[in-house]
Amino acid sequence: ALLHDELAGDEVLVVSNREPYIHSRSDKGIEVRRPASGLVTAVEPVMRACSGTWIAHGAGNADREVVDAHDRVRVPPKNPSYTLRRVWLTEQEEKGYYYGFANEGLWPLCHIAHVRPVFRSSDWDQYVEVNQRFADAVVAEARTEDPVVLVQDYHFALLPRMVREKLPRATIIMFWHIPWPNPESFGICPWREEILEGLLGNTLLGFHTPFHCKNFLETVDRYLETRIEHEASTISYGGDLTQVEPYPISIAWPEGPYPESIAESRASVRAELGLPRNLLMGIGVDRLDYTKGILERLQAVERMMELHPSMVGRFSFVQIAAPSRSSLEEYQALENRVRALAQRINLRFGQSGVNPIVLKVEHYDSDQVSRYYRAADVCMVTSLHDGMNLVAKEFIAARDDELGVLILSQFTGAARELHEALIINPYHIEQGADALYRALTMPEAEQRERMRSMRSLVRDFNVYRWAGRMLLDAARLRRRERISAKLR
Ligand code: G6P
């Protein structure tokens, strides 16, 4: 309801690289898949609520078969409520813009995860080109001269200014779903000024935490000639005004009821993995990405078994790792290292059919993932750096029995909100091991107390609030702009 009020009568366009539905062809015909993406998890419920048009890269091999002559398809497939407009990229564009500049340049640059960013001129050229193509798609799709354009993430740093040039009266709201580093770190990007100028085409620019906003303001201050009002958190640059604000992202609270009770999920998940019924179980769910601290997590499991031999044969850690960006070398190397580490730990501590690590390098759909959350005794989120991390919030939301323990890295945005989790430094393996043992032996009363307080927070600060607050602020800026346009 809040969203409808904020947007009353306005046209809404969303731009993101990743599409919410991927159509692909198999022997069984055309299948639809949801990608493993924090961004899609968050933005999709918002789009369902406010209709409009979502512009994204068509990445599935059957994506072209289901669109109309304007490359549009109504989604979700089962209950169409908004339009997905697909943009097609050539292999070369995808290589330079997505794999190259976005994921070998900006991704490691912003995450400070000790993977060196790679900057190539040829990637940059494609990044500029693809940003222009998406900006053109926004302009082509817009039916009014003042739409609300919601731009998502680091793939589109240049697009806001490009859209602003063609649609000067648009309200452009951008959310940066990953961290923003400090000025020194960001400064190694050879095109830092261009990126900052592009972002200052926004009316409103959102980050997960106040700390990322502060880093952004300081970065702009360091590298561009602008006027910054720190109190008001605004930047004026070449006649444009950009408001910078924190909006911690969240999830849609599950509607339930679940198809299985907690007891049923505990039993069925263990049976499906060939594990004993009464086994203690940990769960990790991530894209197979070097920012997620998967190696550190497995090492913590190993260390816990070293310190507490009584846990050997009584505990398994199940890691679901969705393959991601796997044509990049860093990602292939990570997969090899994770597999090798899991194997080594299992050789060392595997006992009578119980492996300490169960590794699934596969895509699981969200219903399956929530069954696993419900079957687990503990969930480990050990990102080395993460804008928010929605797995932490999904785990909490899935636990309507108010049991289960969350171990959470201090380097996630989520740790700013979920104080009742066991907060750890994932680089400190002993600390992870201690937290794991503490979680596995925590009395139910304490689990319940922690879970209750985290559940009420996630229920209240859900993704509709996230979007609602951004749109409310945008509506205010829009009114101000209309008034000053009248005065001019
Ligand atoms: C993060 C990014 C998203 C991205 C997702 C999945 O959550 O912030 O923009 O969609 O990872 O990554 P992928 O490269 O598969 O889209």
Descriptive report:
- With 488 residues, the protein is of the alpha/beta class.
- Helices cover 44% and strands 18% of the residues.
- The chain has a ten-stranded mixed beta sheet, with helices on both faces. Strands 15-14-13-16-17-18 form a six-stranded parallel beta sheet, sandwiched between helices. It has a two-stranded antiparallel sheet with strand order 2-3.
- Helix 3 crosses helix 4 (121-141) and helix 10 runs parallel beside helix 11 (329-349).
- The radius of gyration is 23 Å and the shape is globular.
SSE map:
Layout: H1 2-7, E1 12-15, E2 22-26, E3 29-33, H2 38-50, E4 53-57, E5 72-75, E6 82-87, H3 91-111, H4 121-141, E7 148-152, H5 159-166, E8 171-175, H6 183-186, H7 192-199, E9 204-207, H8 210-223, E10 227-229, E11 234-237, E12 240-246, H9 262-272, E13 280-287, H10 294-307, E14 315-322, H11 329-349, E15 357-360, H12 366-375, E16 378-381, H13 390-398, E17 405-409, E18 422-424, H14 429-440, H15 444-460, H16 463-487
Parallel strand pairs: 1-4, 1-7, 4-6, 7-8, 8-9, 9-12, 13-14, 13-16, 14-15, 16-17, 17-18
Antiparallel strand pairs: 2-3, 5-6, 10-11, 11-12
Helix pairs in contact: 3-4, 4-5, 9-12, 10-11, 10-14
The structure holds 6-O-phosphono-alpha-D-glucopyranose.
6-O-phosphono-alpha-D-glucopyranose binds near residues 18, 35, 39 and 153.
Protein name: Trehalose-6-phosphate synthase
GO molecular function: alpha,alpha-trehalose-phosphate synthase (UDP-forming) activity
Organism: Noviherbaspirillum pedocola
